[in-house]
């Protein structure tokens, strides 16, 4: 469960956002520079909102009023970067292992690397380095790495924008499946309205930092 | 006169010791300067880089003042370790470290700044604290620049002349390093000794530059990589 209402001053406009999400996928759509990535980074703790509150599973991670700002590494958020941000000096396996919690903090989900690699069909890439795999494969590794941290919320920043149409369609289907499997809310940033309509149970359109339109569909199970 | 290899040994000792000091001090300072903003940062940056442009005689003069018998650090050394810096190999090491520091510092700082910040952010979202981010992401990815700086600092330490002469003097077998031995052998008309040392220094310096260039090309090729 994620509740977020906050403002963030940007050089040319002020971002104002108010949404909540219990499960399923929230798609944030808008043109470049609309503030989509800033929203993700505020939720993740990579940027600090000017004011407001962010609440994940009834835990306040940011509150300007109470002076709370929990550091990123304690927010239990998976983040998939637009350019994947895979560590180039580590193999696929080491990349995925990087964020594995020391003790299985959620016992029923206690994950092994093999589980996750298998789930994303990248087991054969285990010992390869990021510069030896394709864009679609990098995307899967980035997803695997984020899921390995056993997050309570997954943020995806234009995860499919750099991929060809075929790979993109395949991964769209897999994202839908993964969400059902993991039962945690996903927030997906995209500039493609079609993609948002296909993946989002909930859609927020952004323009110049303003929330324009919210559509809610039933959470598909 | 017979050829003496002692200056070579002394030079290597000085250069190794100086590089250890420079490496240990430049990496944390460069990391701090690359990552943090603070009041007076530009002034600190200028002071750190100063030995790169100051004449060696000025550095030598300053070091003599600071480490001399009545200098602030010279006195401390005398009291704590009952030893002095001036006219010893330790003085040569300090002179070499001071002139080599900016080379290493700049190389490391640029390397750290060039590490993709998204990778560091990604590591933080994966639960890493700042130290873990630095040691597992920033440092390994800046390694090329660090090694390049290290080699340059070593070569610079080996070739240090002016400041070394002022603080360590020219004591054969004790503080007479290669560049100083060359100068005084030539002054004394011993061109044999001087030319052998000149050839050694030139070959070594050539190998350092050549090696760095080759290695730089190689690592650029590696990092280009390419998708499947």
UniProtKB/TrEMBL annotation, chain A:
<dbReference type="Pfam" id="PF00005">
    <property type="entry name" value="ABC_tran"/>
</dbReference>
<dbReference type="InterPro" id="IPR050093">
    <property type="entry name" value="ABC_SmlMolc_Importer"/>
</dbReference>
<protein>
    <submittedName>
        <fullName>ATP-binding cassette domain-containing protein</fullName>
    </submittedName>
</protein>
<dbReference type="InterPro" id="IPR003593">
    <property type="entry name" value="AAA+_ATPase"/>
</dbReference>
<keyword id="KW-0813">Transport</keyword>
<dbReference type="InterPro" id="IPR027417">
    <property type="entry name" value="P-loop_NTPase"/>
</dbReference>
<keyword id="KW-0067">ATP-binding</keyword>
<dbReference type="GO" id="GO:0005524">
    <property type="term" value="F:ATP binding"/>
</dbReference>
<dbReference type="InterPro" id="IPR017871">
    <property type="entry name" value="ABC_transporter-like_CS"/>
</dbReference>
<dbReference type="InterPro" id="IPR003439">
    <property type="entry name" value="ABC_transporter-like_ATP-bd"/>
</dbReference>
<keyword id="KW-0547">Nucleotide-binding</keyword>
<feature type="domain" description="ABC transporter">
    <location>
        <begin position="1"/>
        <end position="221"/>
    </location>
</feature>
């Amino acid at each position: 469960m994620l509740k977020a209402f906050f403002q963030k001053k940007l050089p040319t406009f002020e971002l104002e956002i108010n949404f909540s999400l219990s499960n399923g996928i929230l798609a944030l759509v808008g043109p470049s520079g609309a503030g989509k990535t800033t929203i993700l980074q505020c939720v993740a703790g990579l940027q600090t909102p000017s004011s407001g509150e962010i609440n994940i599973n009834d835990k306040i991670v940011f509150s300007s009023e109470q002076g709370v700002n929990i550091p990123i590494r304690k927010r239990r958020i998976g983040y998939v970067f637009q350019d994947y941000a895979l560590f180039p000096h580590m193999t696929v396996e080491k990349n995925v292992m990087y964020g594995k919690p020391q003790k299985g903090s959620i016992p029923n989900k206690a994950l092994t690397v093999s589980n996750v690699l298998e789930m994303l069909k990248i087991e054969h890439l285990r010992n390869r380095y990021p510069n030896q795999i394709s864009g679609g494969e990098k995307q899967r590794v980035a997803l695997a790495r984020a899921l390995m941290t056993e997050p309570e919320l997954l943020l995806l920043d234009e995860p499919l924008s750099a991929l060809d149409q075929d790979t993109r369609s395949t991964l769209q289907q897999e994202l839908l499946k993964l969400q059902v499997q993991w039962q945690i809310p996903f927030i997906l940033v995209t500039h493609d309205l079609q993609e948002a309509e296909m993946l989002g149970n909930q859609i927020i359109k952004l323009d110049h930092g303003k929330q324009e339109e919210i559509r809610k569909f039933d959470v598909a199970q | 006169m017979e050829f003496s290899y002692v200056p070579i040994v002394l030079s290597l000792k000085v250069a190794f010791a100086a590089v250890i000091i420079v490496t240990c001090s430049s990496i944390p300072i460069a990391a701090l300067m690359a990552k943090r903003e603070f009041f007076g940062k530009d002034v600190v940056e200028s002071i750190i880089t100063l030995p790169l442009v100051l004449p060696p005689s000025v550095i030598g003069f300053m070091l003599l003042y600071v480490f001399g018998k009545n200098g602030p650090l010279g006195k401390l050394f005398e009291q704590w370790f009952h030893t002095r810096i001036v006219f010893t190999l330790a003085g040569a090491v300090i002179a070499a470290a001071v002139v080599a520091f900016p080379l290493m510092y700049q190389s490391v700082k640029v390397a750290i700044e060039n590490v993709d910040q998204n990778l560091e952010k990604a590591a933080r979202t994966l639960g890493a604290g700042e130290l873990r981010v630095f040691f597992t992401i920033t440092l390994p990815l800046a390694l090329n620049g660090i090694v390049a700086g290290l080699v340059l600092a070593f070569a610079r330490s080996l070739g240090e002349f002016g400041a070394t002469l002022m603080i360590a003097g020219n004591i054969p077998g004790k503080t007479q390093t290669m560049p100083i031995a060359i100068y005084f052998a030539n002054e004394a008309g011993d061109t044999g000794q001087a030319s052998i040392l000149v050839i050694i220094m030139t070959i070594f310096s050539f190998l350092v530059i050549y090696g760095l260039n080759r290695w730089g090309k190689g690592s650029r090729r590696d990092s280009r990589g390419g998708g499947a």
